[in-house]
Amino acid sequence: MDTLLQLMESYGYIALFVAMVLENANIPIPSEVVLGFAGFLISQQIFSFWTTFIVACLAGLVGSVLSYWLGSYGGRPLLLKYGKYIFFNEHKFQMAENMFNKYGGAAVLICRCLPGVRTFISFPAGVARYPFWKFTIFTIIGTIPWTLLLVWAGSLLGSHWRDLIQYNHIFLIVIAVVCVIAGIVYFWHKRRRRNAA
Questions:
Q1: Closest Cα to residue 31, out of 47, 44, 20?
Q2: By three-state DSSP, how is residue 167 classified?
Q3: 82-117 as b/e: b if 16+ CB within 10 A
Q4: Where does the record place the VTT domain (predicted)?
Q5: pLDDT for 81-106, tens place per residue?
Q6: Model's pTM, two decimal places?
Q7: Res 7: pLDDT
Q8: Which residues lie closer than 8 Å to 107 by C-beta, 6 or more apart?
Q9: In whole angstroms, how far apart are CA 79 and each of 31, 67, 131, 178?
Q10: Could you tell me if 178 and 149 are in contact, meaning their C-beta atoms sit under 8 angstroms apart?
């Protein structure tokens, strides 16, 4: 992990983008570490807050789409066959798959805010051929609060950014609340438009 942080210091936003793409494509790179350190670099005036936020969100979407397409074209056998090469966690994948099977598209939004399973939800969505445009919208809605809060917290903590890893359950609660509110607003607006039509 120290190597990754050194790469971010050396290559800036490019390293941030690559790290977040890989994290969202089911490679076990903790976003708390990547975004927390990016926040620290903001506090040192090496990174800009809004550039960091935008780069991280775009990377999250790109990585999620990659995972979605892998699921869509390769299916579960692909992940079970090659998952060992990327330290695949079948337990977390199973949790994400169960949530998707139970809640459908809403699971994409919910899981994007849950550490551990947030990156795995894209794959079962692809396997199920969930409508791509809906998947994209839910992914963006779920990615924004997670990214915004971690980047902001890292910049606020400065040299103590590693506290994000130790106390991530607190941030989980905050992020989960934000995502639930965003989900309620989205579905309420959608239902209102449907009734108006």
A1: 20
A2: coil
A3: ebeeeebbeebbebbbebbeeeebebbbbbbbbbeb
A4: 29-155
A5: 655 555 556 666 777 777 777 777 77
A6: 0.76
A7: 83
A8: 96, 99, 100, 121
A9: 21, 10, 21, 31
A10: yes
Task: Give the three-state DSSP class for 154.
Answer: helix
Give Cα separations from 59 to 2, 25, 48, 91, 173 (angstroms): 21, 10, 16, 25, 24
As given in the structure block, the two tokens for residue 173 are: 């609660």
User: Any idea what the Cα angle at residue 165 is, between residues 82 and 35, rounded to 5°?
Assistant: 75
Closest CA to 122 of 62, 164, 162, 167: 62
Helices in 25-89 by DSSP H: which ranges? Answer: 31-43, 49-82
Closest among 20, 62, 57 to 37, alpha carbons compared: 20
Max mean pLDDT among 50-59, 102-111, 142-151 falls in 50-59
Per-residue pLDDT tens digits for 16-69:
999 999 988 878 788 888 998 899 999 999 999 999 999 999 999 999 999 898
